[in-house]
Amino acid sequence: MHSQTPFPHVQKWHRQRFQTASKFLSKIPQKTTMPHITTHDTIFELKAGETLLEGLERTGHDVEYQCRSGYCGSCRVKILSGRVDYDDFPLAFVAPGEILPCCCKVTEDVKLDCRTAKREPDLFETDLFAAED
Predict the structure, then answer these.
(1) In sequence order, which residues have a C-beta less than 8 Å from that of residue 112 and are 6 or more positions away?
(2) Tens-digit pLDDT profile for residues 27-69
(3) CB 77 within 8 A of CB 98
(4) pTM (2 decimals)?
(5) How many CA atoms lie within 13 A of 130 on its CB side?
(6) How many CA atoms lie within 13 A of 75 on its CB side?
(7) Per residue in 82-92, pLDDT tens?
(8) Which of 16, 28, 36, 66 is the most core-located residue (most Cβ within 10 A)?
């Protein structure tokens, strides 16, 4: 005989097990977007494997540097919004509100207090001795 159930009219029970969706979602390729970097002059996206310092150089920003590994602190810039992480905390002093773009890992969109380099006129681009009209 059937044991007491809350549904006496049910003759046959079906048991079903559900798995979490994460098992299936992990098989779907996820689109990876790189963080956006905003400066006073431009907005750009970091390329895969590129440090923030390399991205700033690629886009023409004026950033001092020497060691490229967090020892000297020459590349220090102010971060206005967003957050970065460090795999290994740099040896150079980093004040609150500052980052070292040579060794930080940008994990979200950030805004930096940084400008593109001003292009100085090249005296050899024009003919200094050309006759003026």
Answers:
(1) 37, 38, 39, 56, 77, 78, 79, 80, 99, 101
(2) 555 556 789 999 999 999 999 889 999 999 999 998 999 999 9
(3) yes
(4) 0.66
(5) 8
(6) 22
(7) 999 999 889 99
(8) 36
